[in-house]
Design a protein that fits this description.
Chain lengths: 243, 590
């Protein structure tokens, strides 16, 4: 079935709210899923994985375990980037905006692709980002320039040295400056695949023109979650709506 | 100043010489008070007005490509709309509905009419699909070719009466029409991607004809109005082919569409603060421009035009029928105060025209002496006098609604920002029980928003986060504590330690940069008047004849007085604010 972007966003917000997300967190999480899905990054498939986690775990936020002039380390405590992605990007942005380059690691976290939307949004603060992480046998690298509307998304061959459940975010005034300051760690082997900006735009236009295809079972699951934020109706409550 | 009947309007004298050259926009502390927002009326920037202006000046061509109604008026009609940039279809399904099943509430599941506005032409296959789904409304699914889904119920007071009158060859009694003002009431008009429809972004980017907030939804209601008059004429003609007549054109213009708006609309204003800020900011900019135009005095033509408008509003209010004692009392007050103004304009208009800062003087006097709703009527009327200064803002009623976090902001600065922009929230004493007497929640019945009473109703644990004032207060207290414990930190660190507040922090930071910010009201006070939220939004829609049915819902009339499709292409179609009882055209006079 097809749903609209607005409809999906509303359903996700209610579902995340039902899962215990706070206001703000469920807005951000819904934005992350919708962006990935509408730009061809299989956001709904990734959501399925996240839901299986949140259905059995209380929402947990990341914890700041180390901080110095240009380095942050967050312990994700096994949570999803849907819940700690905003905090991570906010933190690294708050330091990078001063003009230097900064790194931030989120260790022990899942669903790292969702961070792309947060990075894109944060570029409005005139900061550039490079994020990378290990996905199976390859490394994913996402680069976003200040005020960019789309990221550069690349897969690289060299990933064995990367932790399987970590995410590293580098921030600075420009992509070139980040590449220069962190060149030693950004040698990720050969780039063997790239999802182009044109592909992302095409996916997005398709989703706007025809809606977003969603598995009926997943839609029902979101609907079922949403019912948890609803309140039983009776004659008394109807009077609270103007009867 | 003395009015004709000898009443002195104190203070409405020559303007002081130290008035600013350009009149400043009104401050948020004045405008964002919910009592004032709930006193707004239709203006030139209201969405119905801008839509009608566009249709009339661009001469949209509207005709029925399918008109299959039986003699009782049941069946299917498809209208084809050729607008300036695109072609659209408006599809109507008319069904028999037993009177006992007629229900205006959101929770209803049957209606007299169901409708869809679609992009392009509708072929047989799509029509079949629509006929399966549109009548089900929320229980159905449509696709992204559909822009708006709506439904309506016949008026028990006027529909059959109108058919009877026309069938026997008589026009309806104007007093009956004045009391009701419509043949159908619409109870919902869904757009913006609900139920599988086209997202607002698609409408905005692809269909320029409807690329303004709620333009497609308003158009749907306009088409409902058009259909309603065609339908009664159709039924009357079949009932009495020899004696039936068509509706008089002036009566047609006086027929609007009824609307019942309840709590479902209220969360929108709280959940879209940037959009609401934008609407209000444009309205205030227009008003400031108008007031500035009176700096060096105004022409007698404008004074006389204002006098006519004042008289019109008085007649309009006199013709309103409401059982709501509060609204009725307000209407009487406005009538009385506008009466003073009208009399004074008639007698001393010349004096006003020569005043420096004429309009500012008038508005200031109204603010000092008259009811807030009278003040807002006057503001609206002044805006009517200056189309060139006002109408240009109609293209700026939309805004990107994304919130912007400022993670590097020092916590101490955020504290000061709250003290500056949310002083109204900090002034609320939440220790008083009545200040947290109600809560907002969503019912399992169609997710309908409802208001519950604390300690009485179920659902407190699932309340919606609409109490912005309360959330700001809690956040402020936590920020102050954090700033004392960890001085010099920024917002990013605060949120890491206090993730519960991430949403309200970003809202404060975002709205703190806007001119008007959040609506200034404690929405969980036991005596809160949600109807004022509804009225604010409805005024931007452009409705008239507010008839509150409780503090939770309001009846009103849409497009009453507006031009007909047959008026499109003429240049006199934008003078339908505050509709008044018409005179019959000479050919229809009995």
């Amino acid at each position: 079935m097809n749903v609209s972007r607005n409809e999906l966003s509303a359903a996700l917000k209610k579902a995340f709210e039902a899962l215990g997300f706070e206001p703000g967190d469920y807005y951000d999480a819904a934005d992350m899923v919708v962006w990935l899905q509408t730009h061809g990054f299989y956001g709904l498939d990734r959501l399925q994985a996240a839901l299986s986690y949140f259905n059995t775990n209380v929402p947990t936020h990341a914890e700041l375990v180390r901080e110095d002039e240009s380095t942050f380390v967050l312990n994700g405590k096994g949570t999803s980037i849907l819940l700690c992605g905003s905090e991570a990007v906010n933190l690294v942005t708050s330091r990078a905006i001063e003009g230097g380059t900064v790194s931030l690691d989120v260790v022990n976290c899942f669903n790292r692709s969702f961070v792309i939307q947060r990075l894109l949004k944060a570029t409005r603060r005139n900061v550039a980002f490079i994020a990378y992480w290990r996905q199976h046998s390859h490394a994913v690298k996402v680069s976003v320039s200040p005020s960019a509307d789309l990221p550069i998304y690349q897969l690289f061959t060299k990933a064995s040295h990367l932790n399987e459940q970590s995410l590293r975010i580098l921030a600075g005034p420009s992509i070139d400056r980040i590449e220069e300051d962190y060149s030693w760690e950004l040698s990720l082997g050969d780039s063997h695949e790239e999802f182009s900006s044109a592909d992302m735009r095409r996916c997005y236009q398709e989703s706007i023109e025809h809606g977003i295809e969603i598995d009926q079972d997943l839609w029902c699951a979101l609907d079922s979650l949403a019912t948890q934020v609803l309140v039983e109706s009776n004659d008394g409550s109807r009077s609270g709506a103007g009867d | 100043m003395m009015t004709d009947d000898g009443v002195q309007i104190k203070g409405l004298t020559s303007a002081s010489s130290d008035m600013p050259e350009h009149v400043a926009m009104r401050p948020a502390s004045q405008v964002m008070d919910l009592n004032r927002l709930g006193s707004f009326h239709q203006s030139r920037l209201s969405f119905m007005r801008t839509l009608v202006r566009r249709m009339v000046t661009e001469d949209w061509q509207i005709s029925s490509s399918l008109f299959e109604l039986d003699e009782q008026g049941y069946g299917t009609v498809v209208f084809t709309i050729k607008a300036k940039f695109g072609t659209f279809s408006f599809v109507v399904f008319s069904h028999y509905l037993p009177p006992e099943s007629r229900n205006d509430r959101v929770i209803a599941n049957q209606w007299d009419l169901t409708m869809a506005l679609c992009e392009g032409n509708v072929d047989a296959q799509q029509l079949s699909f629509l006929s399966e789904n549109v009548p089900k409304q929320e229980a159905g699914r449509v696709d992204a070719r559909v822009m708006v889904l709506s439904r309506a119920n016949r008026s028990g007071r006027t529909f059959d009466y109108m058919v009877d009158q026309l069938a026997r060859g008589e026009q309806p009694d104007l007093d009956v029409m004045a009391q009701v003002g419509y043949l159908y009431r619409t109870t919902a008009a869904y757009g913006s991607g609900k139920l599988g429809m086209a997202d607002w972004e698609k409408v905005w980017t692809k269909h320029k004809d409807f690329a303004r907030p709620f333009a497609a939804e308003m158009f749907t209601c306009y088409m409902l109005r058009h259909f309603s008059m065609q339908q009664v004429e159709h039924i009357a003609a079949h009932r009495s082919p020899s004696s039936s007549i068509k509706l008089d054109s002036n009566i047609k213009r006086y027929i609007g569409i009824g609307n019942s708006t309840g709590l479902g609309m209220a969360p929108f204003l709280i959940n879209h603060p940037l959009l609401i800020n934008q609407w209000i900011e444009m309205r205030e900019k227009a008003l400031a421009a108008v007031l500035s135009a009176g700096e060096m005095g105004v022409s007698m033509t404008l004074v006389e035009a204002l006098k006519k408008l004042v008289d019109r509003v008085i007649q309009h209010l006199t013709e309103i029928y409401t059982e709501d004692a509060r609204q009725d009392a307000i209407n009487q007050t406005i009538i009385e105060q506008l009466g003073l103004l009208g009399a004074w304009l008639g007698k001393s208009g010349t004096e006003l025209s020569k005043m420096k800062n004429a309009w500012t003087t008038l508005v200031t006097y109204a603010e000092d002496q008259w009811h807030v709703e009278t003040q807002e009527v006057i503001n609206t009327l002044l805006m009517e006098l200056y189309p060139d200064l006002v109408d240009k803002f109609e293209e700026s009623m939309w805004v990107d609604e994304s919130y912007e976090a400022i993670p590097e902001m020092p916590v101490s600065r955020l504290v000061r920002l709250i003290e500056d922009k949310y002083d109204w929230a900090l002034a609320i004493n939440f220790a008083e029980e009545e200040s947290q007497g109600v809560f907002w929640y969503r019912s399992e019945e169609k997710m309908e928003p409802r208001l519950g009473q604390v300690h009485i109703d179920l659902g407190m644990d699932k309340q919606m986060p609409l109490a912005v004032g309360r959330r700001v207060r809690d956040c402020y207290d936590q920020l102050v504590k954090y700033d004392n414990d960890s001085p010099g930190q920024d917002v990013a660190h605060f949120i890491l330690k206090n993730p519960t507040y991430s949403g309200i922090v970003v809202r404060i930071q975002t709205m703190g940069q806007s001119r008007y910010g959040d609506i200034r009201e404690n929405l969980i006070h036991k005596d809160v008047l949600p109807i004022q939220l509804l009225r604010c939004k409805l005024s931007f829609f452009g409705v008239s004849k507010f008839d509150p049915r409780s503090r939770l819902w309001v009846r009103n009339t849409m497009f009453q007085g507006a031009p007909l499709i047959s008026d499109f292409g003429r240049d006199d179609g934008d003078n339908w604010q505050f509709p008044i009882k018409p005179r019959l055209t000479s050919s229809s006079t009995l």
